[in-house]
Predict the 3D structure of the following.
Amino acid sequence: MMINQGQEIDQAAINTPGVLHLQWLRNMDSNNRRLIDNHNHYAKAFDVFCKYSSKHEILSKWAEEVFPKVVVEKLSKGLVEGGTKLRTLGIGSASGFMDCKLISCILRKFPDVCSTIVEPMLSYIDRFKENAAEESLLSVEWDWNQTTWQQYYDDLTLTDIPSTKFHFVSSIHSLYYIPNLEKTIKEFLACLEDGGILLLILTAEFSDVRGFLKRFQLLDANFFNQKNAEDIKQVLKTLSIPFETTRVESFVDVTPCFDSNNKDGQMLFDFIMQEVHFHFNKSPNVIEDILKRLSEPDLSLTVDGKTMLRNDWEAIVIQKKQEI
């Protein structure tokens, strides 16, 4: 690690919130501060966000109660006639918590499944394998790919036509920073068999988290270019592609953010604001302004002494027309 002036500092200095550490943090250029560009820090911040948002519990409930109706029931058994395995594709699946829940549901109708996973972080793939073992998904044939979606798709379409197509494709909370949504959605659909289903899950447009970010986007405008479910729906409407949506209510407990010495609070700040070491990069006045806004009743709720920020998400389901 280097300070802008060219002085080297060791890892111990970086991990110590002293004067030198603060100088280094505030001298980081904006590209280095973007959370999405710091994979290890992103993974840690994401884990903390999940801890305080009950994300896994909400996703599990949706997978058990809604997913079978909006996806599994619509997948025809005719898709796998002649001993063909049902092929699924998970894109940006992270630790695979949600993918495992969905595949468990699919297995109840289709006992033979081959699942391809595209995930750039090796640590997440390792955790995915652990989650798959815990869910007892022993019958599933796994195909692990530590790569980005674009690299995977480019390899898949060396002849301009996907060499493998899938019956179910999912991208769960992984499209926030895609530069060209229309191109990416077309690629997803190109990999889908006729009659197959594409599932996209993103944060809803009018969630409190998004409203909160927009309120402070002048701090660093390039940090706030996240896509949301409405962006996806607009692309689908432009392409005249029919879809169905379900909206899920979700909240994140941001109480730890109000304690400047709380490590989880610092990580929550990083994930919500999408910036590495956000708390240290901004002046005390800016932090005070943000916390004041965060506690206002039009933006958050107070439940049992906790400050809760709404973070709803939407599931968008597209079924590819089956040719007769």
Observations:
- The beta strands are 86-91, 113-118, 141-145, 166-172, 192-203, 244-248, 251-253, 300-303, 306-310, 313-319.
- The mean pLDDT is 83.
- DSSP finds 15 helices and ten strands in the chain.
- The longest strand covers residues 192-203.
